[in-house]
Amino acid sequence: NKQFGVESTISQKPVSNSSIFEIASVSKIFFAFAVNRLVEKGLIDIDRPLFEYLPFEQIQKDERSKLITARHVLSHQSGLPNWLWGGPNGWKSNNDGELLFTPGTNYQYSGEGYEYLGRVVEKITGKRIQEVIDEEVFLPMGINNSSFSAINKLMPNIVVGHTGDYPMFWDLNREAWVAGSMYSNTMDMSKFMIGIMQGKGLTKESYKKMFAPQIENKEPFLHFFGGNRQWHSLGFELEDTPNGRIIHHGGNNGDFQARFALQLEKKVGFILLTNNDNGFLMDLALQEYLFSGRISN
Prior knowledge:
By secondary structure, this protein is of the alpha+beta class.
């Protein structure tokens, strides 16, 4: 576990093990893990239309919306755009509530789909999403300094995002949204990665199902590890490279960038949390070092 740089260019406080970062869309894999646990427990049917649990009012005029399942959402096959009405950050799109395609027939990355599934999970469990994450992910993995909102416990250690050398003082996420609001540190995320490597929290069969390819992503610019083919599983991205399959997910909130990546066969992985908009450069360097074949064991 290595730390470099500062929490803020103003305070010059060095980054430490306790520094808390926004992990952006890497949040999705924690929520997806929780959903896979609920599926294993029989609390949600992964292939039952979500409409039967909770209708999505804004898209009900499109009859195809009644076909969306948890499987479609977790693998980004719901037909929903990334955001319908502007998403949690407030910007608006031109989408008028119609799906881009029939669920299960194509790939389109969608935070909106994850938010819909989050509301369904709250309806089924009768619990707020943070409570579900606590019970299904944080507790079994021993995670205790992370949250899907900026709770008081974490506030003293939340770092400042930067564009170049300039600190960006945006409002903190006070409400949990499953697609991208999680705050964490490298220690907690390491516990999650090691837990996955050890097979914690799910049966072997459930792990097999969670990591099974669901749909191929044929956009070459999204092939992060130099592989020829990439798929989405039930929450994770999969990329086949000459040196094996990489299980990963990235996150980009602009001034915060993150990557979670592992190779199960070799039990090699890395977690990258940055509070700068050029964090992708370190991401690329770690990919090259760990997954280029230079490490064989």
